[in-house]
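It would be a great kindness if you could assist me with a short task in structural biology. The matter concerns a single protein, recorded as an amino acid sequence and a row of backbone structure tokens. Kindly check, if you would, that the fold set down in the tokens agrees with what the sequence suggests. Thank you for your consideration; the sequence and its tokens are set out here:
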Amino acid sequence: MRGVVDALVVRYESSQRVVLADDAPGPRQWFAGVDHVDEHGDTVETIGYAVLHVLDGLLVVDSVRFKGKWQGRGLEPLLVGMAIDHLGAGRPVELRVPDEVLAERLGFERRDGVWRLDPAVGRFADAMKAVRADVG
């Protein structure tokens, strides 16, 4: 897996809607795409993505998807964890993806029927060390 993971790049894009009636900004939505790149750094294909948004000081993970042969290789927790590191800025995180294995792998706790994570607690940092070691 190491050779394959070394050839992946995560890119971040964001958008924000503005409600024209009151000119109030809506939640900022983030797209974290994972590209498989060749030896020159050129994108071969986009193999997966995560959709997140920031709402009232909370980072929300809405979806995570990988294409066929890339599913089940342990990349989902790596991508979500990297996005939390990059976008979270210490915010609490809510996972709206119905994936118990992913949630537990990253140190989320189920409270009131919702998967939540406080990145300030050491569980997340420890979980990311283990995820990175597993992926290579």
Q: What stands out?
A: The first helix runs from residue 2 to 5.
